[in-house]
UniProtKB/TrEMBL annotation:
One of its GO terms (cellular component) is cell outer membrane. NCBIfam families: type_I_sec_TolC. Residues 149-176 form a coiled coil. This is Outer membrane efflux protein. It comes from marine sediment metagenome. Signal peptide: none annotated. One of its GO terms (molecular function) is efflux transmembrane transporter activity.
Length: 356
């Protein structure tokens, strides 16, 4: 569908007149809008951000490795009596300790983590679909904005021509009144018509500026000159397919409908994620560390075992028995959200089949 609309844009651009050298055609305006429209750029940023959510969800299922290192230095001074209490010996102790260790943990079973990963993948797909929908909607908004400017400009030209004609009639009426061929009321009536045409010209001029401003809101720049549509070279073609064929295509390829379907799938996965609060978790953990101690008293080493090593491997198994009813409540809530998402999909489906 997007390709068909783009093809129509190209066809329209080819049909636009080229009398003004610097005038921009529809395709050029669309390209500018693609690079500057805040709505599309926001949707792209959200799609990019959501794509990293899958990596974050996967990270909880991968090994977690950590390294620790520490160094401690302590000095102490004491006095000990030898024989006579008046005979005290100064004792100085210096201790240097260096330790290091590495730890590893690996999730072996966590159904909730896998549910979270599935949801993250579908949310990334959902955000990508919303980005595609924003780009498709941009085509329509640019075309509407472009032709609104042309329509308002045509209307302004018509109003200006009408004002000039009324102005000539006013001059003729004044001349006829000057020679006594008409009444003063005719002059007043002609003047009123001219004043009204001036007001209509102001309104039409404001409409042109409003249309240009609305187009600038999309593209981020003012477009002073736009190519006009050459109706001699552009003509619409009659659809060759039946309406039922278009409905089938919309069911398969309509972006908003696809996004709505993914939203239903996410809501369904949220139910499984909530139920995972009842399931056990199994984690493998392993660690290794060593330490080196240098203990000196008055300069002499008194540490019989200056180095020590330690290692451990273990399994951590946990089963939630009761969480105050939170898991049941979360599951029921997720089911309600799923019903709501399903009804949103049905609403979108009916709207798509109606508008095809």
């Amino acid at each position: 569908m997007k390709k068909n609309i783009l093809a129509a844009l190209v066809s329209l651009s080819c049909a636009l007149g080229a009398t003004a050298v610097k005038a921009e055609d529809l395709l050029q305006v669309f390209e500018i809008a693609t690079a500057n429209d805040p709505t599309v750029l926001k949707a792209k940023a959200q799609a990019d951000a959501q794509s990293y959510q899958s990596d974050l969800a996967m990270s909880t299922l991968l090994p977690q490795i950590g390294l620790t290192m520490s160094y401690t230095k302590s000095d102490a001074t004491s006095y000990q009596s030898v024989g006579d209490l008046s005979n005290q010996v100064k004792v100085e102790s210096d201790t240097d300790q260096f330790s290091r260790g590495v730890s590893l943990s690996q999730t072996l079973f966590d159904l909730g983590a896998w549910n979270t990963l599935d949801i993250a993948d579908k949310q990334a797909l959902q955000a990508s679909g919303l980005y595609d929908a924003a780009k498709q909607n941009l085509i329509v908004r640019v075309a509407e904005g472009y032709f609104n400017v042309l329509s308002a400009s045509d209307n302004l030209e018509f109003v200006e021509a009408e004002k000039r004609a009324i102005e000539r009639q006013l001059e003729q009426t004044k001349q006829r009144y000057a020679v006594g061929l008409t009444a003063i009321t005719d002059v007043h009536e002609a003047q009123a018509q001219f004043d009204n045409s001036v007001a209509q010209e102001i309104i039409a001029g404001n409409a042109v500026e409003t249309a240009r401003e609305q187009l600038r809101e999309i593209t981020g720049k003012y477009h002073e000159k736009l190519d006009f549509l050459n109706t001699d070279t552009f003509s619409t073609t009659r659809p060759t397919k039946r309406s039922s064929d278009f409905v089938k295509v919309a069911e398969d390829k309509n972006i908003n409908l696809q996004v709505s379907k993914v939203t239903v799938d996410i809501a369904k996965d949220q139910i499984e994620l909530a139920k995972a609060g009842h399931y056990p978790k199994l984690t493998l953990s392993a660690s290794y560390g060593d330490s080196l101690t240098d203990n000196q008293i008055n300069g002499a080493n008194f540490d019989d075992q200056p180095r020590s090593d330690s290692s451990s491997v273990g399994l951590n198994f946990s089963v939630p028995l009761y969480s105050g009813g939170a898991t049941v409540a979360a599951t029921n809530q997720a089911r309600a959200f799923y019903v709501g998402a399903s009804q949103d999909y049905e609403t979108n489906y009916r709207a798509v089949t109606r508008t095809v």
